[in-house]
Every structure is written in C-alpha cells, then in structure tokens.
Amino acid sequence: MSWKIIDYTGWGRVLRASGAMARPERARKLADLTKEGGPAVGNRRSYGDASLNNDGRAIDMTRMNRIIGFDAETGQVTVEAGITIGELAHIFAPQGWIPAVLPGTGFATVGGCIAQDVHGKNHHNTGSFGQHVLSVTLIQNGKRVVATPKKNVALFRATMGGIGQTGVIAEATLQMKPCPGDVMMVTEQRAENWERHISLLDASTAEYCVGWIDATAQGAALGRGIVEEAELAKGLLPKAKSPRSVPRDAPNWALSGPVVRGFNATYYRRVPTSGKSSVKRIDDFFFPLDKIHDWNRLYGKRGFYQFQNVVPLSEVGALKGMLDRIAGAGLASPLAVLKRMGDGRAGHMSFPMEGYTLAVDFPARDAARDLIAELEKMTAQANGRLYLAKDALATGDAIKAMYPEHGDWAAIADKSDPERSLETDMTRRLGLRNTG
Amino acid sequence: MKDNMTNLPDTVTDETWIILGATSSMARAFARKVASEGAFVLLAGRDMEDLERSATDMRARGQHAEAIKFDARNPKTFDPIIDRVSEVVGVINAAVFVGSMPPQDAIDEDPSLIDGTVMDSYAGPARFLQKLAPVIEARGAGTVVGVGSVAGDRGRIGNYVYGSAKAGFATYLSGLRNRLTRAGGHVVTVKPGFVDTAMTWDVEGMFLVATPEKVAGDISNAVKKKKNVIYTPFFWRYIMLIIRHIPEFIFKKMSI
C-alpha cells in the first residue's frame, strides 16, 4: 500500500531516477516507513542528484507539512519537515516573524534547507539556515532522536548540511526573526565591471545584498551587473501577480547565446545609471523565479547544470579568472549570481565560507560539462568549494578535499545509519559515505 | 503559490464545521478551506495525536480549530461532539469523510470484515448524523456534506462491499436531505472520482487524478450553491452516467 515506482529528477533535469516512493501523511506512518529504508526527499529543488535514489526507496515528505508548535512571544516555530520555507514566510510575515534565512526558492522544504544548510541574501549578516535551527527530530530506523546545538551536538552538526544521511529529518524547531512588515525596500545600482561589482558588495551595509551578474559580458564590461540591497520594511503591499508556468519543454534555442546576450544587456539597462529604489513584496524579492512555475523547463528537454562555488576573500582574482572563462565560452544563461558570504556555517558539510560565491546556469551540453570540470579545478586551486545542492558532475576526491571535516561527518553518518539505507545517487557518485 | 497557502481569515463567521475523519488529506484540505474563510473547525477522528497537529497548524495560521475524538465503530464518542457544538452559537455544519476500504480479496477470505466496512462507511456516520439532525433543525440552518464514492453507483467485482456501504450511505443522505430541507438545513452528497490521497497512492490504472485541494474547493462551492449531488471533478458525472447505463447482462461480464 505504501510504495510505488515513479520516475523523478533533480531540479536540473539532467540526472534522473526511477525507484519506489512512499508519501506518508502522518507521523506514525512516516516512522514505520523509515524501518524499510530510503532517504527522505522534499520538493527536489537540489539541481543534481542529492535527492535521487535510483533503483532504491525514497520517502516523499511533501505531505508532512504542518506547523506543530508556535510561540508568538519568541518567534519559535516547530514544523513537520515537508513544509516549504515560502509557506512559512507567507504565514508568519503578517504576524511579525520571518524565517531568519530564506534561500532563492520558496519551494524548498524545511527538511531540504537543513540537509543543505542553505544560505540567503543575508548570509554575510545572519549566517546559514542551520544556525537558526534550535532542534531537529530525526527518525533513525523507526526511532525518534532529537539533536540540538546543546544535546547530541555532533549529530546536530552532522545533520546541518548533512544531505539527509543522519536519519530522516522529520521535524525541526526554528528561531524566526522579527520583521516590521511584509514588504522589502530595495535599492538597485549598476556595477559597470568586476572591480566595481566587488567593491559595491564589499561596501554594502544592508541586511540583504546580492549581485546579479551578466556572465556573457566580456572585456572591459567583464563582471558587470546589478547590485541589489534590501531591508525588511513596513508599507503598502504591491498587488501580487498570479504565478505563471512553463507548460512544456522549451526548444533548445530558447536560451541560446544571442538570446541570452540580448536579455542580459536589456536587464542591465533596466536599472538607470543613477540607481533605482522600489518596494517589493517579500516573495518577489526572495523568490523571483517562483513566479514562473517549472522554470527549469526553459532549458528544454536536455536540462541544465548550475555551477556554484565559493572562494576565500583573498582569491577574488581567481574568481575573476573563472568568470572570464565562463564569459569567453558563451554558454552561460541569464541566471548568474555573485554574492559576498560571511563565515557562518552550521555543520561539517556546510557550503559557506567567508568569501565570494558565484552561481551560473549552463544548458546541459558537452562543452558545458568540460567548462564546469575546468571551473572545478580552478575552484580547488583557489581553496574554494562546490555546493552539494547544485553539484551533478564533481568527483569524490575533489569534494572530500574541499570539505576538511568530511571524515568526521562520514563517521557520524555511519553511526546513525549503519546499514547505509539513506544513501542517495549523490553519496554513491561521490563516495561520500566512505572516509577514504 | 499553493492553494493551501491561506493566511489569516478575513473575518470570523458564526459557522462551525465538524469534520469527521479529519486525518485524511481530502478532509484536511476541506478543513483548511473552511477555516480560512473564518469557520470554527472541530477536527474529529481516531488518531488524536495527528488531529492535534492539524489543529495546532490551523491555529498558527490564525484560524480556529480543535481536535476531538470520533470513532465510527464506537458510538460513545458521538455525544461529546454533539455536546461540544451545542455550546457554540451559530450554524453547525458537518462534513463526513470517514470510510474504510479493505481489499476485496481480504474480505473474500474473512467476510467478517464486512461489518467494519459498513460501520465505518455507513452505519457509524449515519448514527452520528441522526444525533446532529435535531441540532440543525433547532437552529433552522446547517449543511451536512457526505462524501460517498463513485464506487457506490454500481457494484463491481473489485470493491463491491465498500461500494454497497457507500451506496447505502448515499441513500441515507438523500433521505436526510429530504428531512433537513423542510427545517432550513441542507445535505450535499459528494462523489469523488480518483483523488491523489494516501489511500490511492499505489493504486494502478488511475487517470485524471484530482488533488485534495481541488476536491475541497469543489465541495465548498457546492455548499455555497446548495447543490444536492456533486461529482468531483465534474466529468465523473458523465463517466458514471455511462457506467450506470451499461445493461446488466453486459456489465456482469465486464471487469472495470
């Protein structure tokens, strides 16, 4: 009654899986299912294979999506892990609270946010998602185990960013932060080139700050983009536009070189040289792409990759070199982001480090795979690291070298899941459960 | 984003909804829907732990909800619900989502399963509604939503015990409608087709599957428009029209 075979993919739609999926609706059922094995998956917003288990079992958490405790005095909320972060923002912003960290899509589940220890546009001020988790309830082979920053500390750290390998993430208590209202005051300004872009990011004092980058601009315009700074505010809410969707796979030329270059130039000039200030809805600021449901179909049937790395502050020159390679290759899409990160991270396998992070999409073609392989090497040389929420192509040796605490993490994961029944396509591809 | 992403209710109305079988996803969706429109919701069912979670969830959204015990096979659980709603002013409504569907081959092996199926899908909820009917009559208003099944429209080899219980319930609802109408009340009979729930998750050969939120929206519209019998999604009316009109001498040889 519980399992059925389904075909499913990661968000990039390049990597695919077929396997038995269950979708429990009650806590008791979920606990029973974990005895049969298989990792938990959420809304599958990871781009690669972090949420895939080909030929194996997986538990779809999206119907475990309730708020099971809320304290209006402290802003602490306890949820079932399948609730989306966007829904939490929706429910609580009008009541004066907002999740401390919001990733780039509101469709990510809380379980997924924990498993990837995600970051948001305020990472430089507020740290990563896991740093605002007060408690997490795991189910390990039918048994509930609670970990907090004070109790079961090692397990807690191994769970934050631990790609679901320490147990099924069933529930979590989050500390939200007060917010004055549910709009954002947003300031945008042009950055004419790389140096200007970096210096605007460095100088920003805003709570939220991110750079959109034109990854097709070359030469003197290399690194140009728009730096967006924002603060939560109280104000009149602009009317919501109803979401649109991409009903079918777009043709392959939809995001071809000329189209992307044209789009990027127009987008860049949208902001006047003197800058621009506006009031945006929380959703529109944090989750701009969620308005277009299934936007991943824009890349056509073959799917796409997202490359995201972070390098230390001192390696900013190396990152410029990488952008130069990307711009020269002419493969990039409109979705490219540059951001300065702080050092906040909650677990052994958390992505963030103090430095600059660059995220760029590429259509899934051989040339893109070659370029990404090269960017990975350059990242390793620059003492940077890749993000497991995005990765689809790296090698295990490279990842393990980038995450110095990997050995400690793998040991805790094995203690939590000795049968290794929570492995995914990603952990197998990268050999992450092996310390060697 | 999602349909269930309702925020604070705009107003508090004087409507109360008793949701029987509130742990099912269809019932959860309907409860969220009416609560978001301001109703006070009594979530009734057997799994109190799960019902408390749903009630907490709705309260965190600024809605009004309580969990209360209901077991179709235990009539002792009926009176406390009637007592609870009697304390509440305004219009009392009830939506019945209970029912159980053991696989037909399990019933073939152990015919005593028929008793439980009939208790869950017909006798239990009907006994409860007999107690509620005087409350609706006394207040001169109130709607009963009874969720039946297209399986009740014609007995088929795959689930005729469940189907016959639902058919009995549908006939009961028709009689109750006849009774309550003259006192200002109303009864909506709902016949869902394939809905994406835990019960149907692994059922093969499903087509045109509706989300629980879609069905909840259809039921809510039917209540507002005082419809008598609805199929949801609507096209099931035509599918079942055809199935009901297949002559028995042909139907008895079919396996659909």
| Full CATH superfamily name of the largest domain in chain A | FAD-linked oxidases, C-terminal domain
Strand content of chain B: 15-25%
The assembly state of the depicted protein chains is heterodimer
Helix proportion range of chain A: 25-40%
Roughly how many Å is the radius of gyration of chain B? 18 Å
From N to C, what is the helix and strand string of chain B? EHEHEHEHHEHEHEHH
The appropriate CATH architecture of the largest domain in chain A is 3-Layer(aba) Sandwich
Q: Quote the distance from N terminus to C terminus of chain A.
A: 40 Å
The total strand number of chain A stands at: 20
Helix content of chain B: 40-55%
Count of discrete structural domains of chain A: 3
In spatial order, strands of the major sheet of chain B run: 3-2-1-4-5-6-7
Number of helices of chain A: 13
Task: Find the structural class of chain B using helix and strand composition.
Answer: alpha/beta
| Widest β-sheet, arrangement of strands of chain A | 15-11-13-12-18-19-17-20
For the record, give the distance between the C-alpha atoms at the N and C termini of chain B, rounded to a whole number: 37 Å
CATH class category name of chain B: Alpha Beta
CATH class group of the largest domain in chain A: Alpha Beta
Give the mean pLDDT of chain A. 94
